[in-house]
Amino acid sequence: MSTKVGALRVFIIDGDHAFVKAFAERFKQLSVYTVMVDICPTGAEMLDRIYRQSYDLIFLDMNLADMDSLEVLSRVGQTTPPLPLVMMGGTNNARMAVEAMKRGILDFLMKDDLLTLDLAGLIQRLMDSFRLRRENAELVQINQMKDDFLATISHELRTPLTSILGLSEVLLTGRMGTLEEKQAQSLKKILEQSHLLVKLINQLLDIRALSQGGAMLAMKPISLRELAIKQATTMQTLFDKKGVQLIFENTEEPLFVQADPDSLSKVFEHLVSNALKFTPREGKVFVETKSIENGQAQFRVRDTGRGIPSEALPYVFQKFFHVDKTLTRPYGGMGLGLAFCREVVEAHSGRVWVESKGLGQGTSVTVLLPVLRDHVAAVDKKAAPAAGVPTAAKKTVLWVDDNPNLLDLVEYGFVGFPHPVTLMTATGGITALTKLRTTIPDLIVLDIMMSDMDGLELMERLKADPQTRDIPILVVSGYKDAAKIA
């Protein structure tokens, strides 16, 4: 004796009464499902019902009497979550099947087959397919929410951090009063930790931009040797402070590669700083650049630090991965550095990998990039200073931002500005429009995300007004994607 495994609700939309009767009867004969069948002959009635009743499977005729079936699918896709739709046809229409699949149906099936094939197996296949599709749609939605969150965080965290950094630096200069030694040291620690936060936020946003293909890489010929040495030597003070020796190897060849200097510098900075972080006092970090076979330029960082266990090596390029997962791990960071490095290197048509013989035996990270053969570095020619440059006339700048702390910082910065500039500030778009009625500035500096009126709307209003349409606008925003939408 068979046992029912579940209850289903099925919706059949078809004006062929004989077919509908025979098809509905097949559902009633199933031994493994208890099926409730709803029937209607028109697309209009279907669109009305699906908002009031949920269905496990919906079978839609390709030839409806009142509406085009593809139009029905388009309207369903615009107004409802994904539905378990199957299209039925009396004839094999490949074009209709392709168009219907584009609009989200699970399958296109012949009516004759529906009356003869294994219906229980078909139901299971269709429901499994819909479940996977729905889970994939949920993952896409989660990823979009994550991206939206990171975009918002870039603004909401960067803006106050900018104020903290700027005002702390102003205080350290003594322009707001003389500081005692302890006060100055405390401010230096605030600056140090704030810069660390900025670096972590930038890592998150860089990873997001690269993974979405939205990062703008300004590719040009650069010397791998010079870039590596420059990036490493800027960290020499940190090596000296920790008591770790920095050693350059095989760095005679210029080794020109086609690369974006900014992003590749970040890769080198991370690899060298990572080696320093995991190398104890009196240890060594080796930086090497050289050419190898098959037209490749190699950059390698080796250290005599703690090393990586073999079981962890396959996962070191995963986002947020930490070899030591305990709450007491002695090293900070979010586990994004190597993930970022791989994204950048692969965007440069290169490869990167990590080697280690185990804990206590050091780590080696190797980057390979295509080398530019026969490239001759252009000699920079210093431009002669222009003679008789006239003194610049006094200019007016309007700075628009709804963060009063940031505007205070801007005002402090303009106090010592070497050129004759008058600064006006506005705490939002509405205030800016009011000030523009009496004064037309030479430049407008504008935030994008503001509470009363966003920067995009303000720009549209400025461009629509003949008095303000020609004013240059500089967008300065904590929202990293502002350049794409401005």
Give structural notes:
The strands form 4 sheets. This protein has a 5-stranded parallel beta sheet, sandwiched between helices. Helix 6 (119-173) runs parallel beside helix 12 (404-415), helix 8 (224-233) packs across helix 10 and helix 10 runs antiparallel to helix 11. It has helices at 17-28, 43-49, 69-79, 94-102, 111-114, 119-173, 181-211, 224-233, 236-242, 261-277, 337-347, 404-415, 429-436, 455-464, 482-485; strands at residues 6-13, 33-40, 57-61, 85-89, 107-110, 220-223, 245-249, 256-259, 284-292, 296-303, 351-355, 363-370, 395-400, 421-426, 443-446, 473-475. Strand 13, helix 12 (404-415) and strand 14 (421-426) form a beta-alpha-beta unit. With 486 residues, the chain is of the alpha/beta class. The chain is built from 15 helices and 16 strands. The radius of gyration is 32 Å and the shape is extended. The protein is 43% helix and 19% strand.
